[in-house]
UniProtKB/TrEMBL annotation:
GO terms for cellular component: cytoplasm. It catalyses: a hydroperoxide + [thioredoxin]-dithiol = an alcohol + [thioredoxin]-disulfide + H2O. This is thioredoxin-dependent peroxiredoxin. NCBIfam families: PRK09437.1 (NF006960). Keywords: Antioxidant, Disulfide bond, Oxidoreductase, Peroxidase, Redox-active center. Residues 1-148 form the Thioredoxin domain. It is an enzyme of class 1 (oxidoreductase). It comes from Lacicoccus qingdaonensis. Monomer. Belongs to the peroxiredoxin family. BCP/PrxQ subfamily. Thiol-specific peroxidase that catalyzes the reduction of hydrogen peroxide and organic hydroperoxides to water and alcohols, respectively. Plays a role in cell protection against oxidative stress by detoxifying peroxides and as sensor of hydrogen peroxide-mediated signaling events. The keyword Ion transport does not apply. Signal peptide: none annotated. One of its GO terms (molecular function) is thioredoxin peroxidase activity.
Length: 148
């Protein structure tokens, strides 16, 4: 897949975000769940990297299956400075093959596998980062974006 699929999702405030909002380079990262340890680490690292990302003219969106209300709470609790998109039915996650069977603590369940897409203004996928590690993600992302 070379193109990011056409989509329309609501952000935490109920505003619609779609491919038409892609200006310059856009980072769309999929994560399992708001306010869990790994997802909080990833979101806070992304928040802390935001000044550097904005200097590179990069927009960031996080996507999970959580509701607008949960996203609002997550943003407020951790002072996040980017939008979180609602994919409650996992439609976009499924289309991008990031909603899969996962194993954790010996149990299997369906869920979002931590994955990031770097996309240009024409919805071309510049990079897909699979099985992202929450802790080093922002730094890995900045390193790639500085090359682009």
């Amino acid at each position: 897949m070379n193109k990011f699929p056409d989509f329309k999702l609501e952000n935490q405030n109920g505003d619609t975000v779609s491919n038409e909002d892609f200006k310059g380079v856009t980072v769309i990262y999929f994560y399992p769940k708001d306010n869990t340890p790994g997802c909080t680490t990833q979101a806070c690292d992304m928040r802390d990297a935001m000044d550097d990302l904005k200097d590179l003219d990069v927009t960031v969106y996080g996507v999970s299956g959580d509701s607008k209300k949960k996203h609002q709470n997550f943003i407020a609790k951790h002072d996040l400075n980017f939008d979180l998109l609602v994919d409650e039915d996992f439609e976009l996650a499924k289309e991008l093959d990031v909603y899969r069977l996962k194993k954790a603590f010996g149990k299997e369940s369906m869920g979002i596998v931590r994955t990031t897409f770097v996309v240009d203004e024409n919805s071309n996928i510049l990079k897909r980062m699979d099985n992202v590690k929450a802790k080093a993600h922002a730094e890995d992302l900045k390193a790639f974006l500085q090359e682009v």
